[in-house]
Design a protein that fits this description.
alpha/beta, Rossmann fold, single chain, elongated, 2 domains, about 250 residues, two-stranded antiparallel sheet, about 20% strand
């Protein structure tokens, strides 16, 4: 190979190296821009989700809890067909939008669907005293919420609030968790890995909850963090709920 050819070859090699590094540089820049956009959108979405949905069956104590948190006093409540909305200021954290979703089965799914996209947290309130009587309804409603595709995607924190602990025959959070897991395991099996929840206007598909091949446990719901806590709205004992709200905010 002549010196002229060697020189020409060297120029080509240099250009190829420059092109190679240029391609890598462009790829890195595109990757960084994509990461920045993703973080920006994720952060914006998280900041915009400031809602706390209070859900549960009728007479679980949701509205009493709502009034004590928002108005600092007990307000006479009754079965409502519409939601209650208030702003709750959390020290050093900003404001949360508290939504008391009606517990009536005819309207609760429609109202939950209206607010689930902005939910930062979900508080499922249940009656610790009457759980044995209501266990099937409680499990079905809870399963419907936890298996909701939007909830699974947005990953709000979930608190199962075992209310009415002032009753002498009320079950504690650990017992309630065990009872619920057994009932939801039966529910999951009978629904053939999928619960079809009928909402106003049509059917809504849901995801399989937990881990296949074993009994249902809340700890196996990888997309959600589910916690249990005790409360007694009647005696104004909401300390566990307030601590949870502080951590969520």
């Amino acid at each position: 190979m002549s010196k002229k050819d060697e020189t020409f070859r060297g120029v080509l090699d240099a250009e190829e190296k420059h092109a190679h590094w240029g391609t890598i540089g462009v790829a890195l820049i595109v990757g960084l821009i994509t990461l920045f956009i993703f973080l920006f959108v994720w952060r914006k979405g998280r900041v915009s989700r400031r809602g706390i949905c209070l859900v549960g069956l009728c007479e679980s104590g949701k509205t009493l809890i709502f009034s004590q948190l928002i108005y600092k006093k007990a307000v006479e409540s009754f079965t409502s067909m519409k939601e209650n909305v208030g702003v709750l200021d959390i020290a050093n954290k900003g404001a949360l939008k508290l939504i008391d979703i009606p517990g009536h089965e005819r309207v609760r799914q429609r109202f939950f669907d209206s607010y689930k996209n902005t939910a930062r947290g979900i508080v499922f309130v249940l009656d610790s005293f009457s759980l044995n009587k209501d266990i099937r309804d409680v499990a079905e409603y809870l399963y419907t919420i936890l298996s909701d595709p939007v909830v699974s995607s947005n990953r709000p924190q979930v608190l199962i609030l075992c209310n009415k602990q002032d009753h002498p025959l009320a079950k504690g959070p650990q017992v309630i968790q065990s009872v619920l897991e057994k009932e939801m395991n039966v529910l999951r099996n009978t629904q053939t890995n999928q619960l079809e929840a009928v909402a106003e206007g049509g059917n809504r598909k849901s995801f399989y909850l937990g881990q296949g091949g074993k009994n249902f446990e809340f700890a196996d719901i990888r997309s959600l963090r589910v916690e249990f806590a005790a409360s007694s709205a009647q005696t104004e004992d909401l300390e566990n709920l307030k601590k949870w709200l502080q951590s969520v905010a």
